[in-house]
Amino acid sequence: MYQSSLTTVECPQTTSLNMSDLTYGEQTNRNNLTDHHMSGDELVFFVNGKKERIAKSHGSQCGFCTPGIVMSLYALLRNNPTPRMADIEEAFQGNLCRCTGYRPILEGYKTFTKERSCCGGKGMENGCCMTNRVETKGYTDESVNSTSVLPAPLYNPADFLPLDPTQEIIFPPELMSLCKGQSSQQLRFRGERVLWLQPASLDQLLELKTQYPNAKMVVGNTEVGIEMKFKNLLYPVILAPGYIPELNTIQHTDEGIVFGASCSLTLLGDVLKAAVGKLPLYQTEVFNAVLEQLRWFAGLQIRNVAAIGGNIMTASPISDLNPVFMAAGCKLTLMSKGGERVVVMDEKFFPGYRKTILTPEEVLLCVLIPYTKKGQHFAAYKQSPRREDDISIVTSGMSVTFAEGSTVVKHLALSYGGMAATTVMAKNTASRLLGKQWGEELLQDACSSLAEEMTLHPSAPGGMVTYRRTLTLSLFYKFYLTVQQKLASEGAYIEGVRDDYISATEIYHQTSPSSVQIFQAVPDGQKEEDVVGRPMMHLSALKQATGEAVYCDDIPLYENELYLCLITSTKAHATIQSIDTAEAESMPGVVTCVFAKDIPGSNMTGPIVYDETVLADDTVTCVGHIIGAVVADTQAHAQRAAKAVRITYQELQPVIITIQDAITHQSFFQPVRTIQRGDLDQGFTQADHILEGEMHMGGQEHFYLETNVTVAVPKGEDGEMELFVSTQSATKTQSLVAKALGVPASRVVIRVKRMGGGFGGKESRSTTLSTVVAVAAQKLKRPVRCMLDRDEDMLVTGGRHPFYGRYKVGFMKSGKVVALEVTYYSNAGNSMDLSLSIMERALFHMENSYSIANIRGRGYVCKTHLPSNTAFRGFGGPQGMLIAESWMSDVALSLGLPAEQVRRLNMYIQGERTPYSQILDHITLDRCWDQCLEISSFTQRRAGIETYNRDHRWTKRGLSVVPTKFGISFTAAFLNQAGALAHIYTDGSVLLTHGGTEMGQGLNTKMVQVASRTLGIPSSKIHITETSTNTVPNTSPTAASASSDLNGAAVHNACEILLHRLEPYKTKNPKGCWEDWVNAAYFDRVNLSANGFYKTPDLGYDFETNTGRPFNYFSYGVACSEVEIDCLTGSHKNIHTSIVIDVGNSLNPALDIGQVEGGFMQGVGLYTLEELKYSPEGYLFTRGPGMYKIPAFGDIPTDLTVSLLRDAPNDKAIFSSKAIGEPPLFLAASVFFAIKDAIIAARKESGLSGPFRLDSPATPERIRNACEDRFTKLCPPAEPGTFTPWAVVV
Questions:
Q1: How far is 413 from 484, CA to CA, in rounded Å?
Q2: Which of 77, 355, 465, 1233 is the most buried (most CB within 10 A)?
Q3: How far apart are CA 244 and CA 202, in angstroms?
Q4: Which H or E run includes 1051?
Q5: How many beta carbons lie within 10 A of that of residue 535, not counting itself?
Q6: Where is Mo-molybdopterin annotated to bind (predicted)?
Q7: Is-contact 1 221, C-beta < 8 A?
Q8: Nearest one of 1256, 1231, 1277 to 1171, comparing CA atoms
Q9: Predicted pLDDT of residue 13
């Protein structure tokens, strides 16, 4: 259970157990497949079909999440060998993936379901939807010269091994017997700080509760484990009543169904579903409401262990179920040694925050969920940032009972979560509505009363005050309409719900997604062994699926290895007065503490400018600033001791947190960058209209599945050290570690096997951890390891820069933009890091894809007291382009023209110049645009949306098409270089090393493909082990989307050198094979090792003169997206997306499409979901998946088409390919502007028109607040400046 606390075990009635066997309660580890010491053959057999299908369907990129997904499916198939697609989607509700975009995972596993045909079950009879079409060159053309093409598939499902449930490995017998034994035995576990007791009977439980009245009761540990780990709470005594029969019983009574308090939520749902299927409809409305809440309650893994009693007793003010139980008047049976009592769960049950009316000696025995009666109507609602597996913002249970044969309210119960420190009842409103007819007058009274009763202080924890207050009205309105519709259908004398209002009563049902991927097949005549251009599987995919792939923290422990935990600042701007380590150093297992004085070399660090400290010396400049570290024998001991270090501070002023703070205090890093072209004054004079506006775009957490990790191993002589690091920048890590240790870089070796995701977050910030770990290892002369927990990683590493943009745009009546002045402000945090380069790229993309004759952009990099923000996929481009699309949208709105018309009018054409004077050649933007409109059926889709919006008042649909032009190269010219090293061994095998790092993008796979074609040998002969600084020196970071271009060319160069050396032997023996030529060369004493090198030619840009060529070439793409918003709650669903993107001649269509889909979904998170929330003092609230939400399986577009533009070779990169990593992310802006399009339709219903501000991300809160109506008017926001907000926009 608590590995950190329980190290010895006392089992009075059982044999002794080791606590390593009892780590239950932690989330499934990605390596859980190997926990039972199966042989390799057994392991492969164990997950045979599951791992094979996720790998071959290209559903594993970085692979860190893959074993967990495999195990979720394994559990499903063991229980249901022929699931429906909906079952698979439910099974994955507790799983997250940051790389793939989810589509290939679902598609690969769809082959296990009843809906096996392609295209989401929409395929033709007898197989694939491509059957009986005309095929040419691997394409399936529906008509000559048509862009509506369907390709040969990325994989062939016929190649999959069949599923044979009878051949699955059995559940481990020792665990089975252990579980059986627990049901009848009392267990007692004693650890360093915690006593764990499992009573065998109810009497024993009551006796123990009397003996330990403050003991915490735990069944599923879904709450207590989190409290102990993240809230630093300690429960010295824990009672585990999960196996007591009385707490697990289920009884059907005349009043309802009684559930024992230990019944799991999964069991609760199963029983209620069965009851709904058997009982009359009128009796099951409460049951259906509970089932609706359970549908979105956490994930299946949590529901399998979480108990109904735990959900109640946790007393969470945002509980999904407690409002339902309160509105239903559920009865709770409480018991102690003194007797039994029954209480109704009402407004008195929760007297305060996280408190109930139970006495310390009492336990919750069971819960009665009642039947509904005739004349009673019941519903439950939940609104959360993300629909699946998310905590609620506001949740509600509502019940109304009418006088017999009438529509007069006899009883009303309205319960809300998220509106106070406890779940509350709207008593005043309910009382006020008694005796009234269910109609418009009642609705008006209810809304005005709820607006008065359901108030929140503007500084209330959780923020979103206006939105939460509005939700109480909106959810009641949904209930009102639902009841009105039911009454009308029952024949009551009441007006039915208007047809255009009915959508407000509909329950959300997810549609299984369908998809199409279009790519150009290899040309006729290409040799079978030439894998370039083919959808080759990621080389590590199978290993990743079985859990055999080795990540940094999988490296076995070294002898005498120690573990490090960081000590971080709790103040944003302060001087350190004192540090007291006495308590920490006295704790078990602690070896030492490390502070700035222990650094043998320089304490100054930074990727470009040395303006940071490895360890804070006397001043801290952000919450999370690393002050020191504790080194101990285990992770648990190190973490516990780190929390015991006492630091006193003298706080300093000012504390600058937001961009607006920085503007006020003029807190900027230098220089301020400017790009200008044309005559701005003349442009504005020429313009028919001038428009000004502003926009804020929030930051983003990288949320790589593998957090930052380093293992440092001193070599014992000459100051040598070897580090295993999860980093994108091996060379930068090497140089900064050497600098801190005070040794030459040649004494430090950095090794990178693979990363569990990077996205830019491990380009520069990973060095922050590596240097600290290296210093500790140097001090102790022992190996030291540290892998950050998620909350630590999010606290100290920074993320994507928040941006604020102001713009002034001049344009003609036609929509042609003739002048633009834009100013960007980025929140850099407390150090420069890469922020200047990020701002430069934002300026390089300030016009996105539009030709503007007169333009000026200026960028200010704000210095604030936040952890330093850093590189993130797109590197400033997504911020610059989003603000560009914002003013483009405003232009269209102000003129009343279709946005797509204005965008197309302003788009670049061949030969035009950018604001930085680079001429655009080989431009494919127009082709991408036209094909995207065609494959998305844009015209028909727009017409359908207009019809839909006329027919629906409370849901609206929107459509947007957005282009992108992304420059490819590092903007720092010196980084555009790469090296490679190739060895040929005498058996003909090839060992390849290059300067890039593998983080899931498939770089190693592409490099093997390049080497295979160049050498003319099968890819199976080529192997890549790792990236290391002692094989390829002075490497550039794996970033800027340029790694395939740079390293591919270097690999090509190395292989050509080797081919040149082998040429004489091929000439002498033309009928020989590869091995013959290699051996002949070896015996002739020819060097079979070669270094390759490449630098991108003709690059360089001067900001002072606005001359030069910053980019080698551009990648182009266009996306069209359709969404539907709920105007009452702000929720949205992604209905359709079509993407056309120019990747040149794809090196690997499967990997490239994976990058498109993964980048797009990461952008969907950026623009619609992910929100970092900081307190005014700079404390990050969103420090884990509980509060920070990335897209889940249910967020992908229901209909997704990705097309790689055909016949678009690129002569500036290896084998005519193009970069793919970053360009697709911005295409998710099409979803953002589709949402804005839907909001426009909603605002039109309220008589509002013209431009309006919508900041990013377009969260449910922002969407709802923008859809102004009579409900929002009842809940006006507090006046800014009159209160201190819970969270600030940074």
A1: 17
A2: 1233
A3: 6
A4: helix 1043-1068
A5: 23
A6: 728, 759, 873, 1040
A7: yes
A8: 1256
A9: 29
**Alpha-carbon span 51 to 109, nearest angstrom:** 10
- For tokens 């009665």, name the residue: 368
Q: What percent of the chain has pLDDT over 90?
A: 87
Residue-wise over 851-881: b if at least 16 C-beta within 10 A, else e?
bbbbbbbbbbbbbbbbbbbbbbbbbbbbbbb
Whether residue 1222 lies in the annotated active site: yes
Q: How many residues does the chain have?
A: 1290
Q: What is the pLDDT of residue 152?
A: 67
Tokens of 1207: 């016949």
- What is the Cα–Cα distance from 660 to 862, expressed in whole angstroms? 9
Q: Per DSSP, what are the bridge partners of residue 593?
A: 630
Feature table: binding site: 62, 65, 97, 99, 297, 320, 364, 382, 728, 759, 763, 841, 873, 875, 971, 1040
Instruction: Please give the pLDDT value at position 173.
Output: 82
**How many other β-carbons are positioned within 10 Å of the β-carbon of residue 689?**
13
* 1028, burial (CB in 10 Å: exposed 0-12, middle 13-18, buried 19+): buried
Q: What is the pLDDT of residue 151?
A: 55
Please report the pLDDT score of residue 227 as a whole number. Answer: 84
- How far apart are alpha carbons 1215 and 1048 in whole angstroms? 9
Residues annotated within the binding site for Mo-molybdopterin are 728, 759, 873, 1040
The tokens describing 398, both together, are: 């509502």
Sign of CA dihedral 281, 283, 284, 289: positive
Per-residue pLDDT of 258-294, as tens digits, reads 999 999 999 999 999 999 999 999 999 999 999 999 9
Inter-CA distances, 10 with 52, 207, 1008, Å:
43, 19, 55
**DSSP code of 214?**
T
Question: What was the pLDDT predicted at 486?
Answer: 95
1014, 1083 contact by CB (below 8 A): no
β-pairing verdict for 955-968 and 854-863: unpaired
Q: Which helix (H) or strand (E) holds 239?
A: strand 237-239
Among the listed residues 172, 165, 161, 135, the one whose alpha carbon sits nearest the alpha carbon of residue 150: 135
Element (H, E) at 1262: helix 1260-1266
Cα(289)–Cα(328) distance, rounded to whole angstroms?
10
What is the predicted pLDDT for the residue at 17?
24
Low-confidence ranges of the chain (pLDDT < 70): 1-49, 117-152, 179-184
pLDDT of residue 41: 39
Residue type, 492: A
Q: Residue 1134: CB partners within 8 Å, gap ≥ 6?
A: 1121, 1122, 1123, 1164, 1195, 1196, 1197, 1198, 1231
- The pLDDT score that the predictor gives to residue 141 is 36
pLDDT number for residue 224:
83
Instruction: Classify each residue of 1215-1245 as buried b or exposed e, where b means 16 or more C-beta atoms within 10 Å of its C-beta.
Output: bbbbbbbbbbbbbbbbbbbbbbbbbbbbbeb
Candidates 787, 822, 631; CA nearest to 711 is 787
Query: Among residues 523, 430, 223, which one has the least CA distance to residue 1145?
Result: 523
How many other CB atoms are found less than 10 A from the CB of residue 296? Answer: 19
Supply the pLDDT for residue 160: 87
Measured from the Cβ of residue 1073, the count of other Cβ atoms closer than 10 Å reads 11
685 three-state secondary structure = helix
Q: Please, are residues 95 and 1193 in contact by the beta-carbon 8 Å criterion?
A: yes
Instruction: Determine the Cα–Cα distance for residues 257 and 284; give it in Å rounded to an integer.
Output: 11
Query: Of 391, 253, 249, 361, which Cα lies nearest the Cα of 309?
Result: 249
Q: Which of 362, 1222, 1261, 1268 is catalytic?
A: 1222
Which strand ranges, in their side-by-side order, compose the sheet holding 977-984? 1022-1023, 990-994, 977-984, 1089-1095
* Residue 176 to residue 1273: CA distance in whole angstroms: 59
Give residue 789's pLDDT: 97
